Amino acid sequence: MVGEQITDTRMRRPVITARAAATFEPVGRSVATARAFVRDTLQGWGYGDIVDDAVVLTSELVTNAVVHAGTAADVLCLRTDTGVRIEVADRYPEREIPLQNAGRAFAHPDREGGRGLLLCGALASRWGVEYTASQKHVWFQLDLPERPAGTRSAGPALPVDALPVADSRVRVAVVQVDRGGCISFWNEDARDLFAYDPEQVAGKPLTDFAAWPHTPGTGTGIAEALQLSRWEGSYGIRGADGRVVPVYASHLRVRDADGEPYTVCLLVRDHERAVLQSPLRTPAPDQAAQPPEGRGPADPFEVFIGSPAPDDLDGLLQRTVERARDMLDGDAAYLLLATDDETELEVRASTGLPSARQRFARVPVEAGSGRYGSARMPAVHEDLTAVPGAVPLLSGTGMRSVVTVPLKVEGRLTGSLGVAAEAPGRYTNEEALRLQFAADRIALAVERARLTELERLRRGSLSFLVEASDLLAGTLDRDQTLALMAQMTVPTLATWCAVYTVADQASEPELSYVLHEDEDRIDGLKSLLMKVDPPEPVPTPGARLWNAPTDAAHDAALRTSLRSLGLGNSARPSKGPGATLATASAVGGETVVLPLVARNRVIGMLTLGKPSEEHFRQEILELAEDLSRRAALALDNARLYSERTAISQSLQRSLLPPELPEVPGVEVEVIYRAAGEGNEVGGDFYDLFPIRDGAYGFAIGDVCGTGPEAAAVTGLARHALRLLAREGFGGPAVLERLNAAILDEGARSRFLTLLYGELWPQRDGSAVLKVVCAGHPLPLRLRQDGTVEPAAEPQPLLGVMDDLELYEQTVTLDPGDVLLCVTDGVTERREGTRMLGDDGLTDVLTTCTGLTAGAVAARILRAVERFAAEPASDDMAILAMRVPEVPLDA
User: Fold this and answer.
1) Domain 16-93+115-143 classified CATH 3.40.50.2000?
2) Any residues with CB less than 8 A from the CB of 23 and at least 6 apart, and which?
3) 337 closest CA partner among 415, 419, 442
């Protein structure tokens, strides 16, 4: 029966307690949106432990759907009682089903496609693929950590009659005992329990009141128990009436703000011990040597560190240094972890030292010659003043004697543990052996916790780099790329960041962007960095220290302080940057520089900094190095794109007339809109120019395609028109010679639609035009009565046939008439299957009676823009000419 119950429990389906779903369109930006959706959902459910893995897996699977499969992606998040299940479905069910043992190698992790399932197999607790007639589902399950979040210990639910009995008013006596074992605080509950007023017990040893239950054969007593960092157990307190009150006590040794140690004792009646007792605690020290009947000897790890052990690395290290300090009655203790190559040690925990200043500081493993200069061997320094600098970590702390021992796992150095005291000669080899024994007990647990933390950091780093790469790839704007670089590093990797750029090898680095997590300090930081020589742009990979900002800030802050005290030389101006004390504090820690190298050239430097006396941990520097490589390529791509865009726009401007001449008696308005990001050269063009006295030439055309070849034909057409027209050739002759010139371009030639005409304003207020329409949308004439009609007939386009027989047509514009010329970007404006067309343009022009040329062109543009919601995909040129109703010479 029991076996059946176990089977049913294991086979039961997880209970779904919440769900969230979203659909993402098949566009590149949907991948980032899907990541944000999953991250926000899981954080809202309180599943922060598995967010990074879920984001990475979702990113790969949604990429497969929207990028590789080209379909929309449906993302479903299900919260269960054991974890979370995420499903990603695309609408491409014909995808190939992966077969096991099919004689084919798995996809390489560096390939663009095929990585999603590999990551599922590596990160997910369970995963699978489900095919239907219309969709393909890829799902993965991430289980929550086994430990309940925030719970140290828990007991089962008990019936009321099984609960421990306590008085209706539970009194918890709080007794504070100083370094000498004397009582310094006694609360009201202690007075009620033992009938002593605080004045009666103040300054007296606790041993005067404690009835300590000595264990035969041991010498442990109340004095020894008060020296331990933590202790729980039973003893008695003699009350004012002389009777012994059995109590259950919990002792915790702490330090006050001045560093003075004392012990806080919490006491309850022994039958109410359930209020304080921790069932997982180790036995009292006097019972450790004699374990209870039926139980084996105490675990050496628990004897040293206590139980339960912290689940996180920082908590374990902090408890280790506190326990080591208490064990040797020291004033300070510290623990350092070795880097992977065992060349440096990094401070990870300390007590009794300025931890904010020392945390993540690095010291070499081999500090000097001899056994005392290596962290691989136990060492005892009886007086540090006799060997200055022997332990750099303790310089300026007032510590005189120190004992250090290595932490080793399978012969490999993983760290170093040290205990120091303010008095000289406190430690001998005996203390070193005791500390080494403790270090041997804790080393394996520390290494396991460190590896667990590294794995967590690795997964978090992977998620960070995925999002960083997506953000950097989402823009080609240089200034936005610089801003993203800084915003991704602050405050995730550093407290402040500065980005220097290098235009070319002969240029000096230029400070391009500065960011600090405190916006009020950005201006001061920027002012400081502007007056400090920039770092050298060397291509050496990895992070290197840069002390210039810290030194300059400290010097300037010192001068500021001296001047405020009236000790500075006010006659001589300060040479250093005018940094405030706040700026000095902001940049007073470690500063590192990472080169931005792209295409074998240093294009800048990424500078990261910490506030006063803080250091970077090695894993953060490695992550920053990965980010700098991606950021460098994104910055160089933005530079190349900006240069190409500038060249393209400059060339585009050169293919259009710089300004339009004023034509007597005729209103002229031109609107030109280049389509596409960067305004690629080529496409549509227009021109209006004087030919001779009283005669003007005008043209509007469209070259097939875009790019350099189209731009070449555009430039050829515009300049050839001017040259040939001013040589006296008529419209047909001009276009025939232009056609021959285009065909001479050979493979680079492009066909060209062109409307060319000559304009003669008349003294009676009219205007005579002679036009040739070579394959171009026909010009439209708007009369005063609102009628619209074509003003020319279609003829063959240019650049296709050798022999063209073109002719010109004469059009007279009466006062109030309008001639409208457009390119096909106007008539071919689309919204789905609908197109504006010639009829739609005619309908809009019909409503323009009585408007000026400028108003006519503006109304046509508004109608084109409103016809479709999407931006225009083709260039547009609009040329409107109108003869005013009243002649100018009237």
Assistant:
1) no
2) 72, 73, 74, 75
3) 415
Q: Where in the chain is the domain with CATH 3.30.450.40?
A: 313-454, 477-563+579-646
CATH architecture of 313-454: 2-Layer Sandwich (3.30)
Rounded Cα–Cα distance for residues 667 and 883 (Å)? 6
Distance CA(685)–CA(823), nearest Å, equals 9
As annotated, the residues of the chain forming the CATH 3.30.450.20 domain(s) are 170-275
Determine contact, residues 356/614, Cβ cutoff 8 Å.
yes
- What class does CATH assign to 170-275? alpha beta
Place of tokens 């005669």: 695
Q: Is CATH 3.30.450.40 correct for 477-563+579-646?
A: yes
What amino acid occupies position 134? Answer: S
Q: Which residue has the higher pLDDT, 537 or 149?
A: 537
Residue type, position 286, single letter: D
Torsion sign over Cα 498, 503, 504, 506: negative
Structure confidence at residue 285 as a pLDDT band (50, 70, 90): very low
DSSP 157-193: ---GGGSPP--SS---EEEEE-TTSBEEEE-HHHHHH
Q: 542 CB contacts (<8 Å, ≥6 apart)?
A: 594, 621, 625
Q: Which amino acid is at 510?
A: E
Q: What percent of the chain has pLDDT over 70?
A: 82
Per residue in 845-883, pLDDT tens? 999 998 999 999 999 999 998 998 887 778 889 999 999
Q: What is the DSSP-derived secondary structure letter of residue 482? A: H
DSSP β-bridge partners for residue 882: 667, 818
Nearest CA to 414 among 458, 385, 453? 453
Q: What is the mean pLDDT of residues 719-728?
A: 91
Pairing mode of beta strands 830-831, 834-835: antiparallel
Homologous superfamily (CATH) of 656-883 is: PPM-type phosphatase domain (3.60.40.10)
Separation CA 852–CA 669 (nearest Å): 9
Q: Are the C-beta atoms of 253 and 329 separated by less than 8 Å?
A: no
